[in-house]
């Protein structure tokens, strides 16, 4: 569904600043950029071509009379809404929780080492840089040398680079299937391939919750990229709202919807700044049973709105809490590419969910090597941090 309420020329999200410093150790895309191979400048419908590095300056809070605290990030011109002062007990906790996948469907991690990873995506073996693979490769070089596609280029993990196809020239896309969802793998300019398979752990959890429910659950997928999570939810019977700032990514998600034969599934595709969207949903009183939020460290909305994880995450989670339906099933946050431990998002989630009961479980999403046959467990490669609130 087209988002009819987007205001052209809207001002950048208050509290954002155009530039930041810091450093990162990330394996993630974007910036919602031109994923298809060209760098794009921030413009309507697309986000920045290259993410700025993370800024660890926290949002400062100052008490106000109505029990709220102001979002006083230094560059805030007009706070969109103050952070809520949460009282009551913090939810109980389970840490660390390591959610491990060895792959599923068409994906598995074959091997890793020496700063690289070798992955199987359907028919193709792909080599990509992997800064966390500090150990030596387990498989001999003749296995790695037979890769179908190799990403080379900028050592900055979100940087530009190019694909090399040592065996034969390959097209930009190819068919893939995960958890019963058919979609396109895609060689993009930022080393990404149109899916983040470590998310399988969250998607399997969500699928099981949606299938077990006695009513169609409402799922909100923020920063939804190519839509695989939205399609998993819809195929399981959920009513889905998918939000992403990149027109191009939404276009790919719609293509994936057709590939998965889910054209008639109840999915709203919304090209909008995630923060603006949730602020409006809060005002309208719309509520969701499951919220997935997978924000980049830095991104831009369709009208140049700036997303800075370290500046905006507290308010985003605060609003997401308000968007949870009375019988909500979960709020799942994943964070990539940030200089932080899972405890930072864990404690933020627990503070945000004070008085709500339930459990906050946090840790890392890891993918375990599975060898050439996809069945031989090897070393675990960490991909991201996550924190998940669930009712008890
Ligand atoms: C890390 S990817 C999400 C990956 C996705 N959850 C998955 O697992 O396939 C980040 C996405 O955030 C989008 N994005 C960046 N800034 C945004 C903003 N301000 N509002 C909404 N989406 C944004 C990008 O276009 C990109 O698709």
List keywords for this structure.
single chain; 392 residues; alpha/beta; Rossmann fold; Immunoglobulin-like; 2 domains; eight-stranded mixed sheet; five-stranded mixed sheet; 20 strands; 20% helix; disordered N terminus; binds S-adenosylmethionine
Give a verbal description of the structure:
The protein is of the alpha/beta class and 392 residues long. The chain has two domains: 248 residues, Vaccinia Virus protein VP39 (Rossmann fold); 67 residues, Immunoglobulin-like, CATH 2.60.40.1180. Helices cover 20% and strands 29% of the residues. It is built from seven helices and 20 strands. Strands 4-19-20-18-15-12-13-14 form an eight-stranded mixed β-sheet, sandwiched between helices. A five-stranded mixed β-sheet has the order 5-6-7-8-9, with no helix packed on it. A three-stranded antiparallel β-sheet has the order 1-2-3. Helix 2 runs parallel beside helix 3. The longest helix is centred in the C-terminal third of the chain and has 15 residues. 50% of the residues are buried. The N terminus is likely disordered. The site of S-adenosylmethionine (SAM) has 28 residues, from helix 3, strand 13 and strand 16. Pfam families: Methyltrans_SAM (PF10672). This is Class I SAM-dependent rRNA methyltransferase. Keywords: Methyltransferase, S-adenosyl-L-methionine, Transferase. One of its GO terms (biological process) is methylation.
């Amino acid at each position: 569904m087209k988002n009819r309420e987007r205001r052209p020329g809207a001002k950048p999200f208050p509290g954002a600043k155009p530039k930041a410093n810091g450093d990162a150790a990330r394996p993630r895309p974007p910036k919602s950029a031109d994923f298809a191979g060209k760098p794009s400048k921030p413009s309507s419908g697309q986000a920045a071509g290259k993410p700025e590095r993370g800024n660890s300056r926290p949002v400062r809070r100052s008490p106000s009379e109505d029990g709220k605290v102001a979002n006083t990030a230094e560059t805030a011109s007009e706070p969109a809404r103050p952070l809520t002062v949460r009282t009551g007990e913090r939810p109980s906790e389970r840490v660390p929780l390591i959610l491990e996948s060895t792959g599923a469907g068409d994906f598995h991690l074959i091997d890793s080492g020496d700063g690289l990873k070798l992955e199987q995506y359907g028919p193709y073996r792909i080599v990509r840089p992997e800064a966390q693979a500090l150990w030596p490769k387990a498989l001999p070089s003749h296995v790695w040398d037979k890769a179908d596609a190799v990403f080379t280029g900028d050592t900055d993990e979100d940087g530009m680079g190019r694909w090399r196809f040592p065996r034969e020239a390959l097209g930009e896309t190819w068919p893939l299937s995960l958890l019963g969802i058919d979609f396109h793998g895609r060689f993009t300019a930022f080393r990404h391939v149109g899916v983040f398979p470590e998310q399988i752990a969250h998607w399997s959890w969500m699928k099981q919750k949606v299938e077990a429910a006695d009513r169609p659950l409402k799922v909100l997928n923020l920063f939804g990229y190519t839509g695989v999570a939205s399609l998993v939810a819809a195929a399981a019977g959920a009513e889905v709202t998918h939000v992403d700032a990149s027109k191009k990514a939404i276009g790919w998600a719609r293509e994936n919807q057709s590939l998965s034969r889910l054209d008639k599934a109840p999915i709203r595709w919304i090209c909008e700044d995630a923060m603006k969207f949730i602020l409006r949903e809060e005002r309208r009183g719309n509520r969701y049973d499951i919220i997935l939020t997978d924000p980049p460290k830095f991104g831009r909305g369709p009208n140049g709105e700036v997303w800075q994880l370290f500046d905006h995450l507290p308010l985003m989670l605060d609003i997401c809490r308000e968007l949870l339906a009375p019988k909500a099933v979960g709020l799942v946050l994943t964070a990539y590419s940030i200089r932080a431990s899972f405890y930072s998002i864990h404690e933020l989630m627990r503070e945000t969910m004070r008085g709500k009961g339930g459990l906050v479980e946090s840790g890392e999403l890891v993918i375990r090597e599975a060898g050439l046959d996809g069945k031989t467990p090897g070393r675990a490669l960490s991909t991201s941090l996550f924190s998940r609130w669930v009712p008890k």
